Amino acid sequence: MTQGASERGAEVGRRIGVGLMYGLFKPRVLGSWRVPARGPVILAVNHAHNVDGPMVMGVAPRPTHFLIKKEAFIGPLGTFLDAIGQVKVDRSIADRTAITRALGVLEQGGCLGIFPEGTRGEGDFASLRAGLAYFAVRSGAPIVPVAVLGSTEKRGRLIKQLPPLRSRVDVVFGDPFEAGDGSGRRTRKALDEATVRIQERLSAHLENARRLTGR
Fold first, then answer.
1. CATH, range 3-213
2. What pTM was computed for the model?
């Protein structure tokens, strides 16, 4: 798929996502104006519910290409994810194809979505993988932290990994920041240091988002 086709696909995905999310839940979006209107950018999203990716894809102000585990690319869903420009990644290896595609999104001035924790969990940014630091330092793209905060109420859930239907889901975008130290270094030490800086910024944003929304 060419970059232009991929970008058009991501825009189609954004339109489908926003309709679906507003149909199933009650999104409240705060700070979307903080996402740079153009140029490469990385959205770093906490991951506590299966709805986090589609929610951000729908409400973000720009078409977003998410890194998504290869296990999701099965049957019609896999065809759909390919068509809307999402990036399949094998989490068990250093997936060179996924890395190249993700860097290509940024090189073309696109918006890349990443779950820096690597998998769905508590959604508290407590344990980050090195991938986010690598993409940010390698591309020079700013990171925008995104907190998705859904209801913890168990009643009304059709699927336990989703917030209750028609419940409010807050999506809070933070201020963009640079992950690197300005030296341009890409050594393991530089990436480790960048990961520490990223984790501090993401954790601070999540704390602020919870305070702001009362979650």
1. 3.40.1130.10
2. 0.87
